[in-house]
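Follow-up to my post from last week.
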Amino acid sequence: MQNHYENAVYPSPFHSRQKQHNQLKEWSRWADYLSVPAYWCESMEYFAGRNACGVFDITPMVKHRVTGPDALPYLNRLMTRDVRKIKPGRVGYSVWCNEQGRVIDDGTIFHLAEGDYRICSQEHQIDWFMTNALGFDVTVAEDTHDVAGLALQGPTSCAVLKDMGLKGIENLTPFGLTTFDFEGTELMVSRTGFTGDLGYELWIDPEHAERLWDRLFEAGELRGIMAMGSDALELLRIEAGFILAGVDFLPAMEAVRPTHTRSPFELGLGWLVSFDKGIFNGRQALLEEKEKGSRYNLVKLDIDGNKPASQSYVYTPNKKFAGTVTSAMWSPSAKASIALASLEAPLGKPGEEFEVEIYYQRELKWSRVMAPARVVKDVFWDPPRKRQTPPADF
Amino acid sequence: MTDSSTIVIIGGGHNGLVCASYLAKAGKKVTVLEAAEQVGGAAATREFAPGFKASCAHLLYLLDEEISQELALEANGLSIAKSDLATIALAADGNHRTLTADGVEGVGLPAQDQAAYAEYRRFMSKFANIISGLHNSIPPRITQERGDLIQLGKLALKIRMLGQDDMREFLRIAGINIYDILKENFEDPLLQGALSLDAVLGAFSGPRSNNSVFTALHRMSGNNAGAAGAVSIPAGGMGAVTQALASAAAKAGAEIRISSPVRKILMDDMRVSGVELEDGEQIAAAAVVSNADPRTTIMDLLGARQVEASFARRINNIRAKGNAAKLHLALDGLPEFKGLSQAQLGERLLIAPSVEYVELAFNHCKYGEYSASPVAEITIPSIHDNSLAPEGKHVLSAIVQYAPRNLGAGWGEGKAAFTAIVMDLLAAYAPDIRDKTLSAELLTPEDLENEFRLQGGHWHHGEMSLDQFLMLRPVPKSAQYKTPVDGLYFCSAGCHPGGGIMGSAGKNAANALLGQ
Amino acid sequence: MTKKYDAIVIGAGHNGLTNGAYLAKAGLSTLMVEKNDYIGGATVSRELYKKDWKYSNCSYVCSLLRPEVYRSLNLAKYGLQVVPYGGSVTIAQNGDYIGHFVDPDVSRREVARHSLRDADATVRYDRDIMRQCRFIRQFLLRTPPDPTSFKPRDLLEMLHLGKEAMKLGEDLIYDTMRFYTMSIADFLEEYFENPLVRASHSGSGIIGSALGVMSPGTAYVLLHHAMGDVDGSMGAWGFARGGMGAISKAMHDCFTDHGGDTVAGSGVDRIIVKNGRAVGVALENGDEHYSDVVVSNMTLPRTFLECMDSRDLDDGFLKKVKNFKIRGSSGKLNIALDGAPNFTALEGHSELIRGDMHLIDSTERLERAYDDWKNGIWSQDPYIDMLIPSMTDPTMTPPGKHFMSVFVQYVPPKVNGKDWTDEQVQQFGQTVINQIEEYAPGFKDLILHMEVRTPRELESEVGLTEGNIFQGELTMDQLMFNRPIPGFAQYRGPVKGLYLCGSSNHPGGGVMAAPGANAAREILGDLRKTNTVPEGWLDD
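User reply:
Got it. Predicted complex:
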């Protein structure tokens, strides 16, 4: 029982294959697991995701199983979203809040069957999820280590899965989930992802993890398949306008300074809050916020010039502090400097102009630029193929 | 289904009845639903052996004077059989100490202690007064809202008005334990023991537990006309108080239904819509006020799923570990206590020979055991009230500690063993007690839980301590009697100002509902 | 005729030294008088066994020492190095243990081994403790206001306190009120389900305290042990390289460097009071020293009951001093070892043996240890907090040998109401090493030399009344404006010219140096000198 301390992190079930692909020999930690920041080139891996397809290990995502007759009412009280609307065989994105209406975490709800759900989250949640079980006939368990997951993202992903023998996969609509027999075990596939493009997530028991990887790469060999690291994914998700816990918002359970947390409205996720479904955590506080107004707006900024605006302050045109950038990058697909920024409400309406204070370095010399920027409404990358069913082969 | 403008009160305990009276007086249509065959809850008088009656709560020390006036309890049949009982700290050798508001007496009592007792009564009464000033008001929240700030300011002002020396002393001792304070002031072990018992009666704490000064102050904080901490025995037992309250409520127009146990609180679109009885009958209501303890109310009757998880967790974490057992003896005549005259038998008798003894008795319950040498508060109310026992017979009523709700070995077998320990304890002071006993009943916290539906079997519906006081009672942000559920209110002793037969929680809850 | 000093500080413990250093730094001619022939008081390294074997005789770890003091007295320049040590472990009787590792992921996994839910709850727990730390830290280097006073200074400070409290927001205010009034056992129950996880957090709630884990008020004591930091890592603890004496040595060097004089080897017989003001001290050796400012770093009772004439003090004040709660509850074993002990549970885990090791497995067991103390004897099954500084600090022992510091809770100031006998002291020592032997077979054979400290020794050696390590218990009646006694929380005694700078004063003990610094600020203010004492650094 006592040698657990020797490893701070678990090798993923895909570890042997990751190791083969990992030319840079660099490893990072993600939750309980070892993860690869970049296999050989961040930029090439990024373009695999936008041009062909990339494979990303999502096993470290924290996974929970919620089962029992009260699973639905339990989740509906836990989540801000109306979980009744997520039918069996469907997946929904949601956030959950504390009683102050601040976001604890976000994640996806997989409705596997009547009274049977899987919740994937960014942070460990079992304490909060079990606290929520009080008074419900429901079983809540974390099963992170019992499920291996791979994301296959990019325009050729559907074709790869077809080639791998997943019959009818092309009929799966966005946010749908289905299962296949995979060498005698169940393979669950959902049309979901964190890249804002056509893509799938594959879920299997860890015993079959390596086989799945191998079969995917066999099938994808001619379609540009490539292992993708977390650095590339980071670029893909910002272009897609997805937020990340601990980066774009502070998870409320960790917040020593409660005012630093954000409500769903303050993250631009008001559409996930359903007041007409009955009681849920944070409802009272969020109702009050809706009446009184929010403190912040999370916006997408299109910034002039080519310098990434990481960790920048944002000012109004008359030089008053407006907020801070939470995520920023040069977008290779939009060919623009883009950012997510948290601005003080009511600032941040689409079209509104700001200036972003960017510090950048050229050959060890630091410079500062006040780059004009404007709030945009749409995400930076939103190709129609994301929604198209059946998808094209490329 | 009845008229939906009705306000339903769950539970006809004293706070439920008080609440009913005030609501009915304000013109509301009120129905009180009591599970038992008579109102009163733990403050009902019941027959425990043929011809012998007793009530679980046996002494009146906190009943609010303002409430008894406003509800005309006297006109409704309440009379006091004996007021201002002296407290006698029993000594095994018969050399007792007698404590009254005026002083303390006993052979061999150090003169120093007599003076110290007067000073102790002076400052403790003065500090208790701060608490009593809070009884009949809805606790403020700690916000920047004007109303809250004014109330908090008033409280601060009251503390300042104590004068510099007393204010310093108040701020020093309010958060600590009675053991230290007694050791600072007194030398006599019996006197220390008796005073310490007042600080821990009904509590999951020993004299050395911090907060016990607060519990002592709370006990002395009654608004009744007598001196601070004065105790009295109502004619007809504590049930007479609840009967008078029921009569007042009925006169005000409230309907009281007995034998109507509530199974659940009904909701309609996130609002309370009524209650359902055990027999399936549904009663519609504009609002429901629960005299059940907060945990029973939320976790059992309403259901945790109707509230946010944090609120459910807070309610579930309310500390309510009952520790007090109740002994009722049917006696064939008056027992003889060593060194006590017949007249003295009618006083309040304490078995708590020293503060160390009380602390040792407490040690056991920390580990799920009952005290090997318990402490007791004893009365023989039949001396003052012959309605409680047949001619020539008597009733002995005693609170016995410590008897934890969750006994490691379970109360199934523990009950007989603990009863024997208690009888031995009594026999050490009244050797003929066994011969005189016709019948004995010991109610453990588990019995109290089952009989009165008190989770944890705690007299006060939740430990009386600083972490569960004022705006923290029963839980923060619901200390204003209104729960987060629209139309649902608390009115039990689990709310401010807590336990003891006081009635203030009922009155305050009525005011909260009426929006005053 | 001896020289008249600007200030005399009684007691060269860390607070006296801090105080003296700030006064000397402000240009005051300052005399330090110390009863022992060594400086440092309870913050000391001593060679009691052989040369090159150092014992941190009393205090043994460092975290609370205010970084503001460290920096402004330039202690690094005077040779002080504080080195963090790795983690901690709580060993249970059944051979299992729970480790707190330096790496947060390993730590998380370790808690998850006992309870997955508790591993997650630890995030919430750490957050809530950190919130309390952040709130309290800002008051450490401030003089408490007198809530009964109408002086502008007190009113402003009360207002400040109120404002800071309000800044917490409603929910956190309630959390704070509950935190300060709950027992550590109840508090932990609200977070954790596993008994060993709870036990591992509970010890800090009763260290040095006359309370059990089930006594309300112990949650604060826990905070007192969590609010320190090493290099900004809050709650972390470290060793002073060379033992705790390195701290007092650096402070003393700073004091001397600024012109301070020291007289060691003779205790103060009495503080000389003339016409209602303190004018100097008379030493036991007959010497007298004069100054208009006399600062006592001694405990409150020692200052007023032993070193002053009761006729110079009023009865009400004396009564309050007599009622000051300063019951000792801790003992200490300093053990020289021939090699590293081998704890069965830690077989091969060198990382954990370098940290803080505790022997306990449930809050209930810890509470029973307290019951013994209440009954007037030392815990028969004591709570033990052990460290082997020589695992980290090469200066403590010759290579391969070890010094082990064993802190023991609970040990009463008197045994069954009577003074400790030498035999009982030895029996107590045996109780402790027998306990350790259970967990580390062969331990006894490694012992080369052992020093046993009960409250009796702590009092006679370093003047800690009743052996209380904090110079007064840390309960609500003796915190903030109540410390040491209401009305005297601003470092001034009842006699003009007399000041108090020991841990009996706000914010209490733990080698924090804050009372000494705060007192110096008050003194310099009274003398209208330029202040040399820093305010607390802002935590945002």
